[in-house]
Every structure is written in structure tokens, then in C-alpha cells.
Write a structure and sequence with these properties.
2 domains, Rossmann fold, single chain, alpha/beta
């Protein structure tokens, strides 16, 4: 199969070819025809599989066949959770739409809002936005949506994780009910499916990879090391293996800053990127990293899904994430689009629990490789692999109890009160202390 057989316009096929692509990825091969047919789509695919082009290409095809946007109006809206991801999608829209007469722009917080309002004044065919800044602009009448044709939610699960659900609901109220809806995400949890019920209509569901799996193109292992030796081991690995481009994940903003400063003192060009950095600083750091001016980019999980760096060879987990799912998103920055990559985790004894959660999630034990001179005093044991967590089934609403005349189910009881003596405890509650 090639892009020419998917039904895309010659202008789009030409733009894709100019980027060196001729064969669509599995998610693109399934999503593009469905979007071109006008169907609503729910697509789940792990990061690095080409999701962005999977909705960008058919979106541009559709918009190129219609009337251009009028003043202050938007024809297609793409919602994303982070500034970095919004910028990446805007770049893709520009690259693939270079031969089309379409206007697009990106809006997000952390920068002056006035230039964004000026760009929206003429109307745009494609608007890429983060939820908070979009609401700010909408409340200032910078744009309207009476002729919106397509709504796209990218990284929908991440938006829920980041607490954007209320913003999303406000945005949905401002949009026309008749529109095409596309939801792209790494996973589709029950919360995502609940949200989908209020957005998509009779969707085509697409899933091209097992849930919570990591790309087979990424080689993964851990280096057991004491916590106070992690910084020195990282420097040793960078020099020993001549790593020229390394994305390093730190659990905290302060830790990211300290590590970047330590690397600089060790004659390794590095910068930190996290939520406390200004948007200008984050943009410059990412640009310098892509261009090779920086050898190491130290990031918190805010960057785990928003970065798209071609041929990124190494990802290092300086700290393991608190949430196991973030491990999958972190290492998904390498081994993208069929390329190979390496994911190395520096693990100390106090991270055994997080390591177990990760191994349970991906259902494999990560190989341990000790580095001479950095053998830990406190061992990182290889514990048996625990069975995967079973997906929780949605609870059935309880029948109304006596005295509950509203017909609503009673709120669920605290699990800790369950047991043979729970009724007795409820009949004899402890007196509250003054």
C-alpha cells in the first residue's frame, strides 16, 4: 500500500513524498480512509506510530475541497494537552499543507495573547490549541465556531490526566453539534470512553498495538546504581558510548535543573525543560537540542508526549516515573516510525516498587546490567513478574433504596468499611472528637 492508494489529493501525496515517506504506517492506513469517508473515529496507537499524519492528511484533504474560512471563524479545531505537542502538530500541518491554499495557526499559553488574536482575525482553516488558551481567546471573541467542520482531540487520555475535562466540556458547548469528531490517544480507558460518548457518533474504532505495550524497535534495560551515584554514571555512559543526543527524564523540576547544571559542569551541553520554564526558554531548548547545539535535554513528564524528534537514539530515565504508564510514553520518544532506539533506566533501591509496577504493566522483566565501578551497595532485586491488572468493569447502578425517592443510586460505600463487622460499625459510629 502507498499514500497514492488512500485517496489523498496530489498536493498532499507530493508533500508526503517530499518528506521521504511513501508507505503509510498501520494507523495511517486504517485512519485516513475512515476520516475521508466522513466517519467519526476513535483511534488508539502507541506514540511514534504516525498518529499526527493519520488525522492531519485527511483533514487537509477535506478542507481543501471546501470554502475558505471567513473572518474570525474556524473550520477545524485540534485540541492538545501541551504547548510542545501543539507546536509539533502545527509544524506537521504546515509541512503537509504547503501546496494547499489553507490558513492555519497555533495558540497556547505562556506567550503574548495579542499576536494570536491578530492571526485569528482573518479566520483560519485549522486551529491547533491547548484548552486553557482557547477558552481565553473565545471569551474575548477572538474566534467563533458556527461553521466548524471537524473537531480533533489528540492525546485525549493525557488531557484528562492533566485535568482539562472541565475546559473540554466548556469548549464542546461552544461548537456546533453537526461536525466530524476524531479522538486519537495512546490508550482508551473507561474515563476516555465516557467522554467519547458525549463527542463521537457511531465511531470507527481503530487499535493497532496492544494496550500499554512498548515498541519492539526499542531496546530496554536498567543499570542498578545507588541514588547518589546516578549523575556520575550518566556522565560515564554519555562519554563511554559517545552519545550525541540524549533525552533524559527527571521526576521533578528542581531535579531537572540540578542535573542540567551538573552536566554543564561536566563539559556536556545540556538544558532543562519543564513547566516552570517560560515558553520561549522551552522552545529555544528544544530547537537547540534538535539542531545539535545541545547534547542532552533534561525533561520532566510534561515533555513525554509532546516531543517529536526524528531519529532520537537514546532515552534515559534518570528517575523512574511515579505512574507506570508514563514509562511507556517516555521511552516512546525513541524508536519512532520504524527506527531503532535505546531506553536506559538508572534505578536505585528506593525505586523497586516503581520498577515492579512498570514491569507488571509491560509484562516483561527488564534486564539488569551493572556498570563496573558503579555497583550499588543497596541491591535492586529481580522480583517475579506479577500478573497484569485486570481492567475494571463499570459498576452497575444500584436500585433505589427506601427513602431515596429521586431514583438515583446511592453513593458507593467506602471499601475500608466492607467486611463482616461493617454493619455493626455503621450502627455504632465513633463519636467525633472536639
Amino acid at each position: 500500500m502507498s499514500f497514492t492508494t488512500l485517496g489523498l489529493s496530489e498536493a498532499l501525496v507530493k508533500a508526503v513524498a517530499e518528506q521521504g515517506y511513501d508507505t503509510p504506517t498501520p494507523i495511517q492506513a486504517k485512519a485516513i480512509p475512515a476520516v475521508l469517508e466522513g466517519r467519526d473515529v476513535m483511534a488508539a496507537a502507541q506514540t511514534g506510530t504516525g498518529k499526527t499524519a493519520g488525522f492531519t492528511l485527511p483533514l487537509l484533504h477535506r478542507l481543501s475541497k471546501g470554502q475558505p474560512a471567513k473572518a474570525n471563524q474556524v473550520r477545524a479545531l485540534v485540541l492538545t494537552p501541551t504547548r510542545e505537542l501543539a507546536a509539533q502538530i502545527a509544524e506537521s500541518v504546515g509541512v503537509y499543507g504547503k501546496h494547499l491554499n489553507l490558513r492555519s495557526t497555533v495558540v497556547f499559553g505562556g506567550v503574548n495573547i495579542n499576536p494570536q488574536m491578530m492571526r485569528l482575525r482573518k479566520g483560519v482553516d485549522v486551529l491547533i490549541a491547548t484548552p486553557g488558551r482557547l477558552l481565553d481567546l473565545y471569551q474575548q471573541n477572538a474566534m467563533s465556531f458556527p461553521r466548524l467542520e471537524v473537531l480533533i482531540l489528540d492525546e485525549a487520555d493525557r488531557m484528562l490526566d492533566m485535568g482539562f475535562i472541565h475546559d473540554i466540556r466548556k469548549i464542546l458547548k461552544a461548537l456546533p453539534s453537526k461536525r466530524q469528531n476524531l479522538m486519537f490517544s495512546a490508550t482508551f480507558s473507561e474515563d476516555i470512553r465516557d467522554l467519547a460518548k458525549t463527542i463521537v457518533n457511531n465511531p470507527v474504532e481503530i487499535s493497532v498495538t496492544p494496550r500499554n505495550s512498548t515498541a519492539v524497535t526499542v531496546t530496554q534495560w536498567i543499570h542498578p546504581v545507588d541514588k547518589n551515584q546516578k549523575r556520575h554514571l550518566l556522565v560515564e555512559l554519555i562519554h563511554k558510548h559517545s552519545w550525541e543526543q540524549v533525552l533524559v527524564f527527571s521526576r521533578t523540576k528542581r531535579g531537572a535543573n540540578r542535573l542540567a547544571e551538573f552536566l554543564e559542569k561536566s563539559d556536556i551541553q545540556a538544558a532543562a525543560i519543564h513547566g516552570n520554564k517560560s515558553q520561549g526558554a522551552r522552545t529555544r531548548a528544544l530547537a537547540d537540542f534538535k539542531s545539535g547545539k545541545l547534547r542532552v535535554l533534561v525533561a520532566t513528564d510534561i515533555a513525554a508526549r509532546g516531543l517529536d524528534i526524528e531519529q532520537l537514539p537514546q532515552v534515559v530515565n534518570f528517575d523512574l516515573p511515579e505512574v507506570a504508564q508514563d514509562y511507556v510514553h517516555r521511552i516512546g520518544r525513541t524508536g519512532r516510525a520504524g527506527a531503532t532506539g535505546q531506553a536506559i533506566s538508572l534505578v536505585s533501591a528506593d525505586e523497586v516498587e516503581q520498577l515492579q509496577d512498570i514491569e507488571r504493566l509491560i509484562q516483561r522483566l527488564l534486564p539488569r546490567e551493572r556498570v563496573a565501578g558503579y555497583e550499588p551497595e543497596n541491591n535492586v532485586p529481580e522480583l517475579p513478574l506479577r500478573p497484569p491488572l485486570k481492567a475494571k468493569k463499570p459498576k452497575k447502578p444500584k436500585a433505589p433504596q427506601a427513602g431515596n425517592t429521586s431514583g438515583a443510586a446511592e453513593p458507593p460505600k467506602n471499601r475500608r468499611s466492607a467486611g463482616p463487622n461493617s454493619a455493626k460499625r455503621r450502627r455504632n459510629p465513633r463519636k467525633a472528637k472536639p
